[in-house]
Amino acid sequence: MKLTLTTQIMLGMVGGILLGILFGPAVGGLKLLGDIFLRLIQMTVVLLIFGAVIEALGNLPANALGRLGLKTALWFLGTTIVAAAIGLLMGLWLKPGAGLHLTPHTPTTVKAPAKLRETVLGFFPQNIFASLSQGNVIQVIVFAILFGVVLNQANRHHQFEAVLNLVKQVNQLAVRLVLLVMHLAPIGIGALMVGVTVDTGLKALIPLLKFLAIYGLSTGIFLAILLLVISWYAKVPLKGLVNGFTRIALVAFTTTSSAVSLPIEMADAHDRLGVSQRITQLVLPLGMALNSNGLAMYLALVCTLVTQLYQLQISFAGMVQIVSLSVLACLGTVVVPGGGLVALAIIIPTLGLPTESIALLAGIDWFSGMFRTVANVVGDTTTAIAIASDEHELDRQAYTHSTLNPHFLRRSGTKGN
C-alpha cells in the first residue's frame, strides 16, 4: 500500500524520536540532513510568494479590483487580523511552551524596531532586487501586490498577456520545486526530530500536545465570534447560519484542504446560505488564493510557543510585528502543498527566532491543518455572506429551512433519504 506524504512525515517524526531516544548523541549528526531540508524550503519562499501574489491579482476579473474587490479585501484583512490576534493572545494567556526550556544553537532574540517610522518604512522596498536577494518577505509582498494590481489594469485588453503567462509559468515551476523538496520532508523532519530528541528527550512532545489543544480552542472561539458577528451584520438567524455551515466545516476538517473543500463551499454558500452566484464566484475562489484566517492564527500562536520555549521576551511592538507578519505570510502560501511549513519558513527566520523550532511544528502539521482549514473556509464563506448582504444579493429564506432543506434539494437535484 502506497503511503501518503502526510503518513510518511508522521512516520519520519516518530522514527526520528525513536532514534534519538535509543542512540542519543551518537546519531546527533543526522540533524545536518534536517538543516539541509530547511534551507531547501527557505530557498523557494521568496520566489513562490512573488509569483503567487502577482498571479492571483493579475488574474482577477476587472470588476474584482473595483468596489466589490476593495470591500472583499477589507473583510479578508479584518478577519485575518482578528484571527492572528486571538492566536497571539491565547498563546500569551495559556502559555503552551511553559515548563520546557530549550537552548538555541545560535544566540537569538526578538528585536522590536526602535521607532514606528522605521517599522513603516521597512515595509516598502528601495530596490526590489535587493529585497529579493536579502529575502525580505514583507517588501517582496508589497511590491508583488502593487505589480499585480498594475498588471491587472494594464492587461484589460490582453496587451500584457505574455507577461502574465510568464509569471504563471514561473509560479508553476516554483510550486513544482516545493513539491520536489516536500518529497524529502519525511527524512528532513525525521532528522530534525533526532536533534530535538537528543537535546531535550520526550519533554518536547508535551508543549506540542498543549499547542494543539490551545489551537483547537482558539479556532472555536474565532468561529463563534465570526458567526455571531455575521448573524448580526447580515440579519440572519444564528441557528440557520450554523446549520448551513455543517457540511462545509465537516468536509474542511476531514480533508484538511481548502482546494478540495471549494466545490462544496461554493455549492452550500449558494444553496444553503443564500449567497448569489455572482458573489459566490468572486469571493470564494479569491479567498482560497489570498485569505487564510486559520493560518494567520496558527502562525501567531506558533510564535508565542517558540518565544516561550526559548525564553525570549516579546514587547508590545514585537506583538504587533508578529500579528502583521502572520497576516502577510499567508499571501501566496494558502494553496501551496505544505503551505503551513512554507509559512513557518517565512515567519520564523524573519522574526529572528531559531529555525530549528520549525521541526517541532512540522510533525504535527497535519493535525494543525484540520483546524486551519475549517477556519479558512468558514472565514471565506462568512465574508461572502457579508458582501452579499451589502449588495442585496442574500436570500434570507434559505435560513428558514432545515439543514437539508427543500431549497437545497431542489437546486442540487438530489433527493433526501
Automatic annotation (TrEMBL):
Topology term for the membrane: Multi-pass membrane protein
Any one of the GO CC terms: plasma membrane
GO biological process: dicarboxylic acid transport
Alphabetically ordered keywords of this record: Cell membrane, Membrane, Transmembrane, Transmembrane helix, Transport
Gene Ontology molecular function, alphabetical: symporter activity
Pfam family, one: SDF
Organism: Levilactobacillus namurensis DSM 19117
Protein name as it appears in the record: Sodium dicarboxylate symporter
Source organism superkingdom: Bacteria
Transmembrane segments: 9-30, 36-60, 72-94, 128-152, 173-196, 208-233, 245-264, 284-307, 314-335, 341-362
Compartmental location: Cell membrane
SUPFAM superfamilies (UniProt xref): Proton glutamate symport protein
Primary location recorded for the protein, binned into one broad class: membrane
